[in-house]
Amino acid sequence: MSPRRVRADAAPEKAQQGKQPGQGKQAGGAAGPRRPSPAVALLPVVTMFVLLGVGNIALDLPSEPMILASAVVAGLVAVRLGHSYEAITNAIAQKFAKVTPAVLILICVGLMMGTWTAGGTIPMLTFYGLKIVSPQMLPLTALIVSAVVSLCTGTSWGSVGTIGVAFMGVAAGLDANLGMVAGAVVAGAYFGDKLSPLSDTTNLAAMATGVNLYTHIGHVLYTTVPSFLATGGVMTVAGLSTDVSPDASPQRLRELTDALGGAYDFNPLLLLPVAIVLAGSLLRRPSIPVMLLSSLVAMVNALVFQGISLADTITSAVSGFKTTMLTAPGFDADSVPDSIVSLLDRGGMQSMMNTLLIAFCAIAFAGIMSLTGSLDVLVERMLRLARTTGRLILTTIATGLLTIGVTSNGQISILMPGETLRGVYVKRGLHPKNLGRTIEDSASVVEPILPWTAAGAYMAGTLGVATLDYLPWAVLCWSGMVFAVLWGFTGFGIARLGPEEQRAMEAEEGVGGAGPGSSGTEASGGPEVSGGPEVSGGPEVSGGPGASGGPAGNGPAGAETSRDGASDGDEAARERASAGAAPAASAASSASPASPASSSPSAPSAPTAD
Q1: How far is CA 257 from the centre of its chain?
Q2: 35 DSSP assignment
């Protein structure tokens, strides 16, 4: 049988296996999926930006249908390029498989928020945080307390809507600079949100870049801590130079502390759930078991110390806590201030469903874009001038700013750059945790200082201060980008991959042509496989579920599926790297001795590794 006939017979079989970007580059222009031009690759992205800009921002429509419509356009482009419907669904399914651990973590976040509130952990932290307010040091105190509450709750919006509102009432009573205090509250809230294992955006950043959650948080410290210290310095100087009245009566502050003190029975055992999470983080234990244990202890606290019924305790874990569940003597839920209700009525696993829905829609879009190679084409164009690490960091920041500025959606602004650029970082020997940190610096914490975003509008409306008035004082929200660029050009705080770790990640992600951020051109001559465009990059070697290990091998956020070389997931990835995507091109032929096509440089790639 001639090589031409072999290629013709093999094409339908490969189409059934779910082809990905590198597969379209068959030698001699054989009939098969084609590589998109820059204009075609850009069409779905422009569609998404237009739909979100007009539908979500201008018309205030839900973002999920807008993203799904963009995914439909991406699917039509994929069909036009020669991809089958089965290949499209397989590509989406593979993306979903990779984020399964992160989905479980987000659900556990909602579980913890509900049970921690029922058990009294969050109210106790809030109560004692408000007790340490010093009138002369109000801005610095607002920064620190907002950071602590947000760190423990994982929600910047909740911190601003509760503690932030209380501090604004104190600032008004003390006749302080409202813009300064609002900036301190926003900066503190986003500092805690950025470093909290309970934060949805933090989990999404770890998920999108394929990095263990605690590894991501630890690396974020390189830019977040200097930004926080800079903000603290500004607030200290500003507070000391501002005349305030120590005799002023902060009525709202007293309302909060009195209501919390009357509703809960505070004791040191209520801090056990926090201690469990902190210990798990320091010991680098698997995230999900740690969260489940912390939630279980919090539920026991709710039953034993707060007198909440078993049914209400379970309800708080599933659908969220309500102030009407409290049974403290003399406590009247109907007379509770609205600020207390907004603080306590939260959490539950169901509260994460909206975030998960947005994530699933965005991942479906990204999966189709990755299948067609559109992401590869766009990244190639975008990164032509980013030949150094510093320039790559600058390009990542520009991408994050563009995405958050156009879409006004924090989740999308994390997921899309993460999916797009991860392969580029791996191919250049840079750990993906550098990407996750930079995305947070340029999207997550920038969102509240842009007036037209949902976060900017929420902060301004909740705190009663215009976004542009508190923007200069929210130093943390814009200085992180400065430190990110500085570290990028100096090399400080830039984590690099070892040769073995890089090979494992390239094989797992398919950075020879199957992974996001890699190009077919780069794939054909990549360092790992050099046997031609089909052999080097297709999912037949490293992209399919069997080859990549599914959720267990690709878990993006859980500690049990870390890609930073510290878990069993990488051991499996290294095995796959050596078994299915060996560095030498000769491994491709040895992987499928029965296939005559594998010996020809113009033939399709070897059969799947599974």
Answers
A1: 34
A2: P
List Cβ neighbours of 405 (8 Å cut-off, separation of 6 or more): 450
Element (H, E) at 350: none
Please answer whether residues 228 and 147 qualify as being in contact, where contact means their C-beta atoms are separated by less than 8 angstroms.
yes
Q: How would you class 5 by CB atoms within 10 Å of its CB: exposed for 0-12, middle for 13-18, buried for 19 or more?
A: exposed
Enumerate residues 6+ apart whose C-beta is below 8 A from 354. Answer: none
Residue 181 and residue 171 in contact, taking contact as beta carbons nearer than 8 Å:
yes
CB 507 within 8 A of CB 528: yes
The candidate with the shortest Cα–Cα distance to 187, out of 228, 152, 149, 248, is 228
Q: Where are the beta strands (DSSP E) in 292-419?
A: none
Structure tokens at 342: 């907004």
pTM for this entry = 0.59
Mean pLDDT by 10 residues, the chain (610 residues): 43 42 43 84 85 75 83 92 91 81 78 88 79 78 87 77 73 77 93 85 86 89 94 90 60 76 90 84 78 92 93 93 87 76 81 78 81 78 79 88 72 80 86 92 88 77 84 92 93 89 79 39 34 35 36 36 39 41 37 35 33
458 Cβ neighbours under 8 A, 6+ residues apart: 157, 160, 448
Number of H helices, E strands in the chain: 32, 0
